[in-house]
Amino acid sequence: MMKLSARQQAILDYLQQHPGVLSSNTLVEQCQVSVQTIRKDFNDLNELGLVRRVHGGITLPSSQDNLPFANRDTLHSAAKQAIARQVASQLPEGCSLFLGIGTTPKYVAQALLDHPGLTLVTNNIQAALTLSLNPNATIHLAGGTLRAKDKDTVGQATTDFYRRFHIQYGIFGVGGLGQNGALLDFSPDEAALSRTIIAQSEQCWLVADTSKLGRYAPVISGQLHEMSALFTEQPDAAIEALCQQHEVQLWTATSGFTV
User: Fold this and answer.
1) What is the mean pLDDT of each run of 10 residues along the chain (259 residues)?
2) Can you give the CATH number for the domain in which 82 is found?
3) Helix (H, G, I), strand (E, B), or coil: what is residue 185?
4) How many domains does the chain have?
């Protein structure tokens, strides 16, 4: 995937903060470039699948579509980095952890590059490669069926591999978080991995930025009450109420422990 320019990243950040249709005219003065330049940025972002071209401008892609890993990695990146730093600050020295699929667990791996002594079990190829730069980390990478666009492995061999371990902290994300507390994923394979992490971990930490609340995905992988904690980037009244209802600790990157 091509690297976004600073202006393109700023356009994407603005769109995420102001959902709806974003017109080129809105950004011309703000970015101090021509309307043709902004329209070219729109076309580039559309080709990458990060936005959707509509009459009058661009909007975010459908919430029901799961983008490839490289595209998702760009979305809400600041929020994911903040969540990852909070997670890393709560993990003790010498602990063991699962890191599930998705982009937020990869950011957790980045935040653990200087962590003293840990054991990682994962099927998230990007997370494994990232954390391999930590000389104090022991990494067990699960085999299975490679999903090239998602940069992970899935299938029976992957879940069987996970079942060989008893892990202290199971850390994973979700495709969506239902208003009733359902943890939602896009495929049965993804849900099976989440279920296995839940079964094989002493405690489970859900990492999810606030955009995941109410986002649709078709497969139920678990329930919020099965989590020990939820980590998100900023206070959100709906998420806080959901955590209180399900008796789950809520950590935010901006204010730490909340509920």
Assistant:
1) 76 78 86 90 84 84 52 64 94 96 90 96 95 96 92 95 98 93 93 96 96 87 96 93 96 77
2) 3.40.50.1360
3) strand
4) 2
